[in-house]
Amino acid sequence: MVLGTYKEVVTARSTDKEIQKIAQDGGIVSALFCYALDEKLIDGAVVAGPGKDFWKPEPMVAMSSDEILAAAGTKYTFSPNVWMLKKAVRQYGLEKLGTVAIPCQTMGIRKMQSYPFGVRFLADKIALITGIFCMENFPFTSLETLMAKMGVSPELVEKMDIGKGKFWIHTADEVLSLPLKETHGYEQSGCKVCLDYVSELSDVATGSVGSGDGWSTVFTRTDAGETIFKAAVDAGVIETKAVNEGKFGLEMLTKLATQKKEKAMKEIDRRKAMGLPVPYKGSSEKEDPLANV
Amino acid sequence: MLAKIKEFLGMEAKPEELASKEEVEKVAEEKAKPRIGYVHLSGCTGDVMSLSENYDILAELLTNMVEIVYGQTLADVWEMPEMDLVLVEGSVCLQDEHSVKELMEAREKAGLVVAFGSCAATGCFTRYSRGGQQARPDHESFVPIADLVKVDCAIPGCPPSPEIIAKTVVAVINGDMDYLQPMIDLVGYTEACGCDLQYKVVNQALCIGCGTCAMSCQTRALTMTDGRPELTSARCVKCGICYTQCPRSWWPADRIKQDLGL
């Protein structure tokens, strides 16, 4: 259960060469939303679109493939996508909405669906949550500082990536890296009690860990997620292969998910001992210490 | 929404139209219909209007699932009867003896008292009342009903969404206490404000910048700046919805997994 409940896990990528070129990994989020838009399974998707500053995303309602693709690639800072959901429904008049969400955003949406206290006629319009794996996030100022540490100005950066113990920055002509221990202290502190690495409550969850370069690991979780993902595979917009069960596949994913949860449990226990509030139970109160409850 | 309610009643696997009627009748036969009252204090009727926006299920709800035994705008009854549950809308004006009396009477005659909407639950925008207006310049003090009587359950919202009202009613009918628990816990949350996000989430190192608070704010008093909620306090009506919907205030993990089939 460290990886959440799921129907199937595969390694996958978009078959679209354009998407492959611009995607962070296998282009699963882009491919799924473009397919769902084309097939009218959704009539728009809230994505982390480009903002005023380089690498500072703004939530955006994408209603065409071009707009979806403009949001491709990971930005390691906040994009409060959940905020935009209401606008998408009220101001854009969308009835079937997709959104890309990191685990905590998925949690906000799912809680709103189960308990829609003040959120009128929105819960049933969320048609597809594509969740992405997330270890931690950074305030924008932190991201600026990391770029400065690596001596690169934001407009020259073409891609950022965290993997193999390093923070990587790709520019047109070089690849720079920073050991992850030098990023400590720059993370968002709210991430430290997060018990979800692989977007356990999304419809379809995807991320890089567990699959080779240019590919993504994909979990289908809900019925809705399974239906859309399978349809996209059948339509040939996504290709799949069996997930690597071994050391650089599911084993690695399980290891990282467990590490994140164990670290968060420690922090939750520490906070509880100090009398600070935490929305989750402490490890001593749980049957399964790693459960996301 | 109808599908959601059917899901609650365990009807979703049955053939469509037929099942709905039969099952509702069955539920009606098997379970005594709860007698529901509605007390309208210093509120705007928006909460009961929100209830009526459950178009698909309203007829079933009112005719087969519950019995409305008391309430202005809903029933022509003058004498307050015994009730299983009373929905109280609006805060209570301490200078208005009739309001105070009606609330006290509702507490006596109802098994469960529900603070229905944010005015009843948190005071909401009547928190800003300060008297000095004709025809009753003395009417200045409005408090959430939990300040005067024991409240069993709170449904905040300005107004609460039609869906949460329907879900709550169904949970009450089914005796689904797990679903109602957060609403029982929210009874203590009477001093609400948009600044709770700062005090109880950001100051406590819990904010993750997801934007759920800004999405749920019903007056657009909240925006997100650099991944953190920013409150325009002049727009805040103190309904408490932002903090209530925040995934870092309370977390109904089991219910969410159940709802998703995970």
Automatic annotation (TrEMBL), chain A:
Task: Please provide the record's keywords in A-Z order.
Answer: Iron, Iron-sulfur, Metal-binding, Oxidoreductase
Q: Which domain of life is it from?
A: Archaea
**Coenzyme F420 hydrogenase/dehydrogenase beta subunit N-terminal domain ranges (all copies):** 9-86
Note the InterPro entries from the entry.
Co_F420_Hydgase/DH_bsu_N, FRHB/FDHB/HCAR-like, FrhB_archaea, FrhB_FdhB_C
- GO molecular function terms here? coenzyme F420 hydrogenase activity; flavin adenine dinucleotide binding; iron-sulfur cluster binding; nickel cation binding; oxidoreductase activity, acting on CH or CH2 groups, with an iron-sulfur protein as acceptor
Give the EC number(s) listed in the UniProt record: 1.12.98.1
Give the required cofactors.
FAD
Q: What residues does the Coenzyme F420 hydrogenase/dehydrogenase beta subunit C-terminal domain cover?
A: 95-244
Q: Name one Pfam family in it.
A: FrhB_FdhB_N
Q: What class of enzyme is it?
A: oxidoreductase
Q: What family is this? A: Belongs to the FrhB family.
Q: What PANTHER family would the database entry show?
A: 7-HYDROXYMETHYL CHLOROPHYLL A REDUCTASE, CHLOROPLASTIC (PTHR31332), FORMATE DEHYDROGENASE SUBUNIT BETA (PTHR31332:SF6)
NCBIfam families found in the cross-reference section: frhB, PRK09325.1
Write down what this protein is called: Coenzyme F420 hydrogenase subunit beta
Source organism per UniProt: Methanobacterium spitsbergense
UniProtKB/TrEMBL annotation, chain B:
Q: Which domain of life is it from?
A: Archaea
Keyword Oxidoreductase part of the UniProt annotation: yes
The first-level EC class reads: oxidoreductase
User: Which PANTHER family would you find in this protein's record?
Assistant: COENZYME F420-REDUCING HYDROGENASE, GAMMA SUBUNIT, F420-NON-REDUCING HYDROGENASE VHU SUBUNIT G
Q: Which NCBIfam families match?
A: FrhG
Q: Which family does it belong to?
A: Belongs to the FrhG family.
Q: What is this protein called?
A: Coenzyme F420 hydrogenase subunit gamma
